[in-house]
Write a structure and sequence with these properties.
There is one protein chain. This protein is an all-alpha fold. It has a domain of 217 residues: Glycerol uptake facilitator protein (Up-down Bundle), CATH 1.20.1080. It is built from twelve helices and no strands. Helix 5 packs antiparallel against helix 6. The two termini are 32 Å apart.
C-alpha cells in the first residue's frame, strides 16, 4: 500500500496483474475474445483436406497478434494449466476463460451466417461449421479413444506452450509459430479420429450455437483438461512451479496458507509485502535464495527471472502491465 494506506503504488509488486476493473485488463479480454472468435471462424469453416494447415496457421497468426497484449492464451486449457502452475492469478484466469468461450460462441454464430445453409442449422442439433460431434469422430472409434486422442494431442500442444513460451530462456518470437506447428502436427495425426479440437472453447462455441455434440462434449473437454494438468505437472517437475503457486510461495516467501492462496487467486501479495517493484524483486530474490539453500541447492536463475517477468521489470513500458506471456 502507499504511505497513506489508501492507494497501491503503480510500481508495487505484481502490478502487471492489473485490476480486473482496469482498462488494461479490459483490452486483454477484448484481444482474447477477438482472437478466439476469428480462430473459430477460420478453423471451423476450413475445407477438410486443409483443416490441419488452416487451424495451425490461424492459431499462430492470432497468438502473434495477442501475445504482447493478453499473453496469447486463446485456449481455456492453456489458461487453466498456467494458473494451476502458478503463472497467472485464478480470478483473471476465470474471466479469461469466460471471454474465450464467448468468443468461440460468437465465432460459431458468425460462421453460420457466412456458410451457405448453415444458418438453417442453428439450434437444430445438426452438425454446423466447426462442430465436434459423432459425425466428426472417425468410424469405429470408441469413446475412450476419443478421450485418449484429445488428451495426447492437447498434452503435446500445451507442452509446446510451456517449453517455448514459459520456460527460460524460451524461444521468443518463434513461439507462436512453434505452437501453430504443434497444432498442425496433432491435427494431421489425430484429426482423422476426433477432428482435433484441443481447445474447450472450440468445442463449446459450436455446441452453444448449433446444439451439436452434447453427447460427446465431456469426452473432448475431459481429455483436454486432463492433458492440461499432465503438461503442467511435467513442466513443474522439470522447471519448477510459477511464483504464484501457493505451495511454493508459502515456503519461499514465508506466507501463511491464507496469504499464499490469496496471492494465487488475486495476484496481489499481502499488504505487508507491498513495496516498490525493485525492492520486492530484491527481497523475494533473497528469500528464494535462502529457501533453495535450505533445500541443499542453489536458487535457479530462471526462478528470479520468473519474478522479474511477473513484476514487469524486464519488459518495455508498453507491456509492463501484462501477465507473463504464454506465447
Amino acid at each position: 500500500m502507499g504511505a497513506g494506506g489508501d492507494t497501491v503504488d503503480k510500481e508495487s509488486v505484481f502490478a502487471n496483474y492489473k485490476s480486473v476493473f482496469s482498462r488494461q485488463f479490459a483490452v486483454s479480454l477484448a484481444v482474447e475474445f477477438v482472437g478466439v472468435m476469428f480462430f473459430q471462424i477460420l478453423g471451423g469453416t476450413s475445407a477438410k483436406e486443409y483443416a490441419p494447415f488452416v487451424n495451425g496457421f490461424a492459431l499462430a497468426v492470432w497468438i502473434y497478434v495477442a501475445a504482447n497484449i493478453s499473453g496469447g492464451h486463446l485456449n481455456p486449457a492453456v489458461s487453466f494449466s498456467t494458473a494451476v502452475c502458478g503463472f497467472y492469478p485464478v480470478i483473471h484466469t476465470v474471466i479469461y476463460i469466460a471471454l474465450q468461450i464467448i468468443g468461440a460462441i460468437v465465432g460459431a454464430w458468425v460462421s453460420a451466417g457466412l456458410v451457405p445453409g448453415a444458418g438453417d442449422l442453428i439450434g437444430t442439433g445438426a452438425s454446423g461449421p466447426g462442430c465436434f460431434d459423432r459425425g466428426t469422430i472417425g468410424e469405429g472409434i470408441t469413446d475412450e479413444q476419443v478421450f485418449g486422442w484429445e488428451c495426447v494431442m492437447t498434452f503435446t500442444l500445451i507442452s509446446c506452450v510451456y517449453a517455448c513460451g514459459v520456460a527460460k530462456p524460451g524461444h521468443g518470437s518463434h513461439t507462436p509459430f512453434a505452437v501453430g506447428l504443434a497444432l498442425l502436427a496433432c491435427a494431421g495425426s489425430g484429426g482423422q479420429y476426433t477432428g482435433a479440437a484441443l481447445n474447450p472453447a472450440r468445442v463449446l462455441g459450436p455446441m452453444a450455437v448449433f446444439q451439436c455434440g452434447k453427447d460427446v462434449v465431456g469426452l473432448y473437454i475431459g481429455g483436454q483438461f486432463v492433458a492440461a494438468l499432465l503438461a503442467m505437472s511435467v513442466f513443474a517437475f522439470v522447471s519448477g512451479l510459477g511464483p504464484l503457486n501457493p505451495w511454493l510461495a508459502k515456503r519461499a516467501l514465508n506466507l501463511s496458507w491464507p496469504e499464499a492462496v490469496y496471492l494465487w487467486i488475486t495476484g496481489s501479495p499481502p499488504s505487508r509485502l507491498q513495496k516498490t517493484g525493485r525492492e520486492n524483486i530484491n527481497d523475494f530474490a533473497h528469500a528464494f535464495s535462502e529457501f533453495y539453500a535450505s533445500e541443499g541447492s542453489e536458487a535457479p536463475r530462471s526462478k528470479i527471472l520468473d519474478f522479474e517477468r511477473c513484476f514487469g521489470l524486464r519488459k518495455s513500458a508498453a507491456v509492463d502491465t501484462q501477465a507473463p506471456d504464454i506465447a
